[in-house]
Design brief:
The protein is an alpha/beta fold. It contains six helices and eight strands. The protein is 32% helix and 21% strand. Helix 2 runs parallel beside helix 6 and helix 4 runs parallel beside helix 5. It starts with 8 loop residues before the first strand and ends with a helix.
């Protein structure tokens, strides 16, 4: 982030909602157990430098969605709750740019760099990151501040959360985003 002052960089916190805790409690296995703690670190750094933060919430539309408004999985996790003045963007698809005014708000604030974190790496985080890159933003995906879950592929093959996470980062790196760490993002706020 060194070539953009913090006022031109924004933190995008994607879907840090309680539904993922419920998935874990039901036996789904995830990677990166420290991701939420790293998100808290990022929130703290951006807040202490008065840099913009945008909170993204997924609102499910299918009757069995864990993200239905009013349901137990919809609320944000307490650690990542927004503060007064921090916008909350509600999306109904994987990308935070589709059906929302996120791009308009970013352009109006002359924000060039997006630091993206949240859940899940290979769904809403990936889709939002791909679109950010395609829209011309300098996207930075924070590898240790996102996570995903084990999945079964279309041929019945089991894929670990670690492998899915790593492949998603590899797919995005260079073309759509730079892959960074929480420590690296925080260090960029410090004067040279």
């Amino acid at each position: 982030m060194s070539h953009h002052p913090p006022s031109r960089a924004a933190l995008i916190v994607v879907d840090v909602q309680r539904a993922f805790d419920e998935w874990e409690a039901a036996g789904k296995r995830r990677n990166n157990p420290e991701a939420v703690a790293r998100i808290v670190d990022l929130l703290s750094a951006f807040r202490s430098h008065e840099a913009p933060i945008f909170h993204i919430r997924h609102e499910g539309s299918r009757p069995n969605s864990a993200f239905l408004p009013g349901g137990t999985g919809y609320p944000v996790k307490d650690e990542a709750r927004e503060l007064a003045g921090e916008p909350v963007i509600v999306k109904r698809v994987n990308s935070a740019f589709i059906g929302t005014d996120l791009e308009r708000q970013l352009r109006a604030a002359d924000i060039k760099t997006l630091v993206i974190c949240g859940a899940t790496t290979n769904h809403c985080v990936e889709t939002t990151t791909r679109m950010a890159g395609n829209l011309g933003f300098d996207a930075r995906l924070v590898r240790d501040a996102t996570w995903t879950f084990d999945r079964i592929g279309p041929d019945g093959d089991a894929h670990s959360a670690e492998d899915i996470h790593a492949m998603t980062l590899a797919n995005l790196d260079g073309e759509f985003a730079r892959i960074v760490t929480t420590a690296g993002v925080i260090a960029a706020f410090k004067p040279a």
